[in-house]
């Protein structure tokens, strides 16, 4: 799309907290998720999931596509690929 500019650029210096990493981990297997799915997979309380999603959205790592539906953006995807999956492989 010509002339399209992404206004909320991802924060490359953002260092996700433990809870935010748990939320990002759910995106390893799914492109889009809802908060309920995240709660079921992580065991986090509703407010903790909402706080994590808000912080990740503000950092430009996830995007709210519709009410209750989030998807991973490029920088968040890079983090999942490089950090979470690599750490998982290193522990094996």
What is this entry, summarized?
51% of the residues lie in helices and 12% in strands. It is mainly alpha-helical.
Topology overview:
Elements: H1 18-26, E1 32-33, H2 35-42, H3 46-58, E2 62-66, E3 69-72, H4 74-90
Antiparallel strand pairs: 1-3, 2-3
Helix pairs in contact: 2-3
Q: Note the gap between the termini.
A: 43 Å
Strand arrangement in the largest pleated sheet: 1-3-2
The helix-and-strand class reads: mainly alpha
The value of Rg in angstroms is 13 Å
The helix content, as a percent range, equals 40-55%
Biggest sheet descriptor: 3 strands, antiparallel
Q: Strand content of the residues, in percent?
A: 5-15%
Total strands: 3
Oligomer designation = single chain
Taking all residues together, what is the mean pLDDT? 78
- The H/E string reads HEHHEEH
Low-confidence stretches: 1-7
Global shape: globular
Helix run count: 4
């Amino acid at each position: 799309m010509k002339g399209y500019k992404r206004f909320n650029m991802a924060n490359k210096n953002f260092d996700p907290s433990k809870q935010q990493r748990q939320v990002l981990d759910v995106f390893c297997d799914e492109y889009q998720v809802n908060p309920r799915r995240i709660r079921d997979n992580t065991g986090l309380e509703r407010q903790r999931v909402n706080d994590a999603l808000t912080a990740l959205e503000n950092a430009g790592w996830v995007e709210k596509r519709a009410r209750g539906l989030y998807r991973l953006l490029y920088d968040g995807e890079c983090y999942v690929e490089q950090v979470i999956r690599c750490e998982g492989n290193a522990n094996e």
